[in-house]
Write a structure and sequence with these properties.
InterPro entries: F-box-like_dom_sf (IPR036047), F-box_dom (IPR001810). The chain has about 270 residues and is α+β, with helices and mostly antiparallel strands. The protein folds into three domains: about 55 residues, no CATH class; about 80 residues; about 110 residues. About 25% of the residues lie in helices and about 25% in strands. Helix 2 runs parallel beside helix 5 and helix 5 runs parallel beside helix 6. The chain is elongated. The N terminus is likely disordered.
């Protein structure tokens, strides 16, 4: 037995159908003919025991069909770029794809094996999606800041071009111990360990020199230590820093376990 209830919307009629087969409350839209009847459009097929619902756009949306929990599980298996593209599908997809449940693990994957974690990514109350984005942007930063210098401990060694006398005092070359270490201080000075034979207890200061082109791009960027030749800056794939010239090289030592991260609290390319 089939019961049909009809309500009018202008010349469009909405019919709700119910039957003994358990399919009830299914909307069937149609256009009224000149005799007041309903011209069925395929949402329900008259005379069949089981009513078939034609495919509609919203029924093909995985978020609607599978639900939020299943979609979270699926998106968690995708790479970060694919999840980021899902943010553009719709407001509903964005709400799911921006979940901290997804991006917490993405941040852990991104940070794995990195020498330094950016301080700006450790700010409280930021969503994990924002933290991930800021981390990627900071990892691409080529311009070193004062905070980058004094936040890290630096390994120091002479290059092969340095005078032999200096190289023979350097554990890196003579194999007598671990590499020498240097420390940049916030006040612009530099120190070394007490037993450092090369250091000799002399005073040392540093500065960062940056010159820009008219379009804002960096023309020249280096660290100056005393009157040594300019030490040019390199950013490595593991987010570590290296400053070097023809005579010596400084490399930042991994410190990814620092709770609050390192470096500046703002982005600067």
């Amino acid at each position: 037995m089939t019961e049909t209830r009809t309500c009018e919307f202008g010349h469009i009629k909405k019919t709700t159908m119910s039957s003994e087969d358990g399919v009830s409350g299914l909307p069937c839209f149609g256009v009224e003919d000149d005799k007041g009847g309903i011209l069925e459009d395929g949402f329900a097929e008259k005379g069949k025991k089981k009513r078939r619902i034609c495919e509609m756009g919203w029924l093909s949306d995985p978020l609607v069909v599978l639900g939020t929990d299943v979609m979270l599980m699926i998106l968690s298996c995708l790479d970060a770029r694919s999840v980021a593209l899902c943010l553009l599908v719709s407001c509903g997809w964005r709400a799911v794809a921006s979940s901290d449940k997804i991006w917490s693990s993405k941040c852990e994957e991104l940070w794995r094996g990195k020498t330094h974690l950016p301080r700006l990514a450790k700010v409280n109350d930021l969503s994990k999606l924002v933290v991930y984005s800021l981390s990627v942007m900071d990892g691409k930063r080529k311009r070193i800041r004062k905070e980058d210098l004094y936040d890290h401990v630096w390994e120091f060694h002479f290059t092969e071009a340095a005078p032999e006398y200096w190289r023979m005092l350097d554990p890196y070359w003579n194999g007598t111990g671990r590499p020498l270490r240097r420390y940049f201080l916030p006040d612009g000075s530099q120190t070394a360990e007490p037993d450092d034979k090369i250091w000799g207890g002399h005073e040392s200061c540093y500065s960062i020199v940056t010159s820009l082109l008219a379009d804002g791009n960096i023309r020249e960027h280096y660290v100056r230590i005393n009157r040594w030749p300019p030490m040019y800056v390199t950013r490595k794939e593991d987010w570590s820093w290296e400053i070097s010239n023809n005579f010596c090289t400084y490399k930042s030592i991994p410190d990814a376990d620092k709770k609050d991260g390192t470096g500046p609290l703002f982005l600067l390319h």
